[in-house]
What does this fold into?
Amino acid sequence: MDCSGAATGMKTASHTIDAFHRGHFFLVQPRGKGHRAGMDAMMLAAAVPSSFSGRLADFGAGAGAAGLAVASRCAGASVVLVERSAEMADFAAQTLALDQNAHLRNRVSLLTADVTLTGKARVAAGLADASFDFVVMNPPFNTARDRATPDALKGEAHVMEDGMFERWIRSAAAVVRPRGRLALIARPGSLTAILAALGGRFGGAEIVPIQPRADEPAIRIILRAVRGSRAGLSLMPPLILHDASGDPFSPHADAINNGRASLFGD
Amino acid sequence: MDCSGAATGMKTASHTIDAFHRGHFFLVQPRGKGHRAGMDAMMLAAAVPSSFSGRLADFGAGAGAAGLAVASRCAGASVVLVERSAEMADFAAQTLALDQNAHLRNRVSLLTADVTLTGKARVAAGLADASFDFVVMNPPFNTARDRATPDALKGEAHVMEDGMFERWIRSAAAVVRPRGRLALIARPGSLTAILAALGGRFGGAEIVPIQPRADEPAIRIILRAVRGSRAGLSLMPPLILHDASGDPFSPHADAINNGRASLFGD
It folds into this structure.
């Protein structure tokens, strides 16, 4: 997926400034390298209920796309962007400094930290136990095997290491309060690792498959789960990105992409 | 799901004789108790390609519904019905003895055995290593917690024990040849246990969610996988049972229910 449907680029030498949610917020992103945000981040943010109120952490926030999309749609959300890469965190800082984002700035902050830290090191880095109501994550999801480019910054975001979901979800379980929630976006091929990592930590998982078209396999899954729940897993109807209308996106996908709808209708 | 769309009952004192695949084969089933076959078995059988040729084991065959449905649609299939319960195996034997099933009888046999046996005990029971090209299974899928009835025979088929998928899939991995295949039907809530049990044994998993209607969560999943494959998991478009037409079943679901189509189109 690219971000052509979500953003319009204003190019300079080293970065672009891209509009999201039809201009409701903007991102400063590295130009032509690194991980550039698009529909994945918008769909992940859409897993948060519009009525959500509380503290939300965006793990692996990059330039801040998912976190800002939550803040943009959910007026009661206080968002912490958590990013390990100093270079990407700098883009997130530039994003927060944009005049166009001034209306969101008092509800969004930036924490440069590695979400895979554990115990006291994690707490010392600013990720205290049970200090959030919601965690969203868009972990790097290309495996080393299918990585297409040697670009170092892109590699940082796109290489999936062994045990990554275990480490990310372990940290999410530590920082959300009991009955707090997790949402993530991933490839369907990561489902086994994800479900194994949820075990004993999060329950009541709801999975929405994301299909390009009605007759094609899912290219992504959005999963939402509840800390400490013992409820079973649900497999929800898919989100179909492109219908037969000839428009770039189906009405539901377009609404989600532009912050007009939540993924679970809540 | 019930079998009302699939079968018409001819009742006697202790059993019924039910037509499947529009009368292409019949089942002798316990009347009003035990596990009665219906759409679940037909959908499971539909996971086998029409072009399949070779030996297929139906684990937990009951009265033989899934195995006979495979034999009915796949002319190259030789089917072994494997059932632990002597009472249900007797219904399977009566099923095979029916005149109406004479055209399938030379390709279907019955083995009374517990599929969870291991090692020499499994081999001695008739389930030799690498002796099948395909295993289909419809394991008992109600948990003890949501079991609705104390009926002993129904309980035998419907209680899910801890580790059941691990034991059933371990045996399936033992009895299929390299690159042989497994298909199963289960509730979405069993996905975590199923994917954990596949690990290191079966790969290239393809999952089809079964939804009652386009806007409702899946009530079943059909999963197919390949012994020894290292390919990733795919999440396929859902099968929608009921469309907006007012007919009992959507055309695709009706074709699958009646042996006119395979689930994966192969």
In short: Residues 9-257 of chain B form a domain with the Rossmann fold fold (CATH 3.40.50.150).
